[in-house]
Amino acid sequence: MSAPEQELKRLLHFGREIPFYQPGDRVKNEVYHSCVSNTIENLLAGEKIADIANCIVKAYSDGYSAHPSMLVYALAVCAKQNTNPQLREAAYKALKTVCSSSENLFLFIKFAKKLSQNDSIWGSGFKKVCKEWYLKKDVKTLAEIAGKYKKCNGWLHKDIIKLIHLKPDTPGRAAIIKYLLFGIKAAKKEFGENSEAHEILNYLQTVEDLKHLTDEQLAARSVEIHHFTIDHVPPHLLKSKEVWGALSGNLPLPVLLKNLERIGTLGFLKPNSVLVNKIIDAIKDENAIAESHLHPAHVFVALQNYEMSFKFVVEPKKVAKLPTIPNPKIICALHELFASTCKLFLPPTGLRYSVAIDLKSLKTTDKCYRCTQVTSAEASIIIAFCLLHADREVSVSVANVEEELLPLELTKNMTISNGIEKLKQSRMQRMKICTPVEWASKQKKEYDVFVVVTDTNHKGISNAITVLQNYRKEMNIPNAKLILVMLKCHFEPSWIKEIKDPGVFVIGGFDGNVPRLIEAFSRGAF
């Protein structure tokens, strides 16, 4: 893998061209412009044209990216560069896959507009792709999209339709376009008598009616009958217990988990609430779990978000009352979901791992950077558990006073609490980054990946890289890798840009993406 190609894959997976991941919205913070453009220019110079678009599509299809919006931005850079028409054509072809949703299409247009500056983005190639986006979608699917999103990322469907001069090919599609351009009344006036458009217009009328409903019971009934999702429901109805009860069966599991904290703080998940049973049924639904492809780390972060949110609910100027606590049944269901996702969604890599944990404190007040609901101890155990569930040859260890590694006896059947208890009993001591590699070398132990999880912000890694390179030669494992996870690192270390070894990866902080990035780097995805 060439250096520019690896830089591109890093960008697509975690939003940086250097081997350092830190949680946070890189697109929102606009810290991606020059690095993406420079990387793609370097690849073009090396004539890796086809690989660029293919890499973007593969990263999207694999679903491993910690910053999916970065894929859209990279695609926009490819489409708007003027160096190579072949790459531009490949980008428009890839757009059909990467921007199949209206959110991503609008995001692509937003990026393309920004990259074009004063130039028009509406060339014949882009117009053609946008026309196909509207014309090749199933009519019912397009109606659902029209009902969900009229505006996203600063763009309206109406804007795009006017700019591309879209000509619908069926009465049903024509009715949807009329609705997007002029509203439901105009659509019904023109297509109300057309039998092909009748069902579509009824659906769109129901969407419009929902927006203006104030009766919570009627709104909940409409959501239940028409299988509306959260994107269809206006904000004023998202404060209704009845509406959330109707939504709970329609929401994909990741969306439900994302909104669990919100539902809880509204006070809808108190004991004996009917909504509690509906939420639990949704969390335990085997089909929903299978379709979700949720990573266990995301489940645990959602669990902690829900559990910890009650500690920060403040109601000023109100009479003192008993504090609200998280519903224990919901907590139990989330723990079961965590166990299920560990069994279902952690594919084996076939690699041998050495996981070394180095924490100076196991206090509940020691939180991870960018994920303050999760402690350093919890994050360490999560990382270890994900690897233990995925692969057979995983050793987890801590250091003693002599900096010798001692095994930490963790098993797949343990809970996170059990794992933390094992950490407390281990009486672990501090270690250097290179300690696990040195220990493996002395003991003639063969490992493909060394993972060091610590709450220390180290001042350098050069010595550890030298030890790793010697280990590769001694043990004849040329692709052995080192991953350093600094759970409390809130800045980009100055020594990161000095790392030239492609087998070294550093993580600062923690979020639900970290274990998946460890797995992806280990198997050579970037």
From TrEMBL:
**UniProt GO cellular component terms:** cytoplasm; ribonucleoprotein complex
For the TROVE domain, which residue ranges apply? Answer: 1-351
* Single GO term (MF): RNA binding
From which domain of life does this come?
Answer: Eukaryota
Question: Where in the cell?
Answer: Cytoplasm
Q: What are the UniProt keywords, alphabetically?
A: Cytoplasm, Metal-binding, Ribonucleoprotein, RNA-binding
The UniProt entry, under PANTHER family, shows:
60 KDA RIBONUCLEOPROTEIN SSA/RO, RNA-BINDING PROTEIN RO60
Q: Which family does it belong to?
A: Belongs to the Ro 60 kDa family.
Name under which the protein is recorded: 60 kDa SS-A/Ro ribonucleoprotein, putative
Biological source species: Pediculus humanus subsp. corporis
**Gene encoding this chain?**
8240105
